[in-house]
Amino acid sequence: MADSSKITVLQIAEEAGVSPATVSRVLNHRDIVKEGTIRQVENAMNILGMTLPKYSITPSKEQSVIILNVPNINNVFYTEVIRGATASATAHGCHLLISQSPLDYGSVSNFCSLIRRVNAAGVILLNQVATELLSQLNTIVPIMQCCEYNQDSDLPYVSIDDCLAAQNAVEYLISSGKNKIAFINGPLSYKYARERRRGFLNALERAEISTPSNWIVQLPEVNYEMAYAATCQLLTGDVVPNAFFAASDTLAAAVIRAAKRYKYHVPKDIVVVGFDNIDLSSMFTPTITTVSQPKFQEGFTACEMLLEKITNPLTATRSILLDTELVIRESSN
Hints:
alpha/beta, six-stranded mixed beta sheet, six-stranded parallel beta sheet, 434 Repressor (Amino-terminal Domain), Rossmann fold, elongated
């Protein structure tokens, strides 16, 4: 009989025909693993001569922990996403732990330590994460990408078609007679910013409209004051935009404030369209026309899909793009 102290999780996984992460879930989170998978892993352990730990026979009554990693908790966009994920986790008797941190080569080891320390059953990522780091995390726990996702990874995600949504918004501006359109965008390190920029340029190209390169503003973060300063600079140029498309409602609000400073009327002189449909968009004056993103649904669906992935690890998990809607308000009408 083999020395069970020298048998690794990888060996068990190979014998059982499952992933190392599945073996880990059987040992630590039996309550969220299908009975057939448990038997498959335990049979492999028996074949390898391992003695089954006592706790593996009785399902754990402790609530499983799901970690939701968010880039910046102060960004109000994430509030509804978190609320949706929390609703799903609560319905399934799980705890949702919010982790605010970047996920890069310098911080991933600390995040992996957190996963192990709280014995997390899975992770929902709202961060943009490098392909190699995603693969590393996925060897520890199941991963679900939400809103933001790595386009080079085959890990599942719940998001929207940012390019198409942006293109539709800009085509709306063009159909309103606007042909001098500026774009206030977030950092291109994020998929949403790259895709919304692509949609913006697609709409202009289809309408055969050109725009000065300095009218496409790339901010290092979604920041109201930065957007305000950038817009003020554009509004003091020799030629002034007659429309702005902003990659978030926070940036759109900054555009409207800058327009008021220079005595431009919104929407008579300058039309403004934002993105996300956060509460600010309906509370600001004038109210902001915006692309409504189903934030609650994204968070809820991401958690549901992650829990399904945890429970049925051998089942292929699909990715989902949810629909958006352009909500017309006073800033363009």
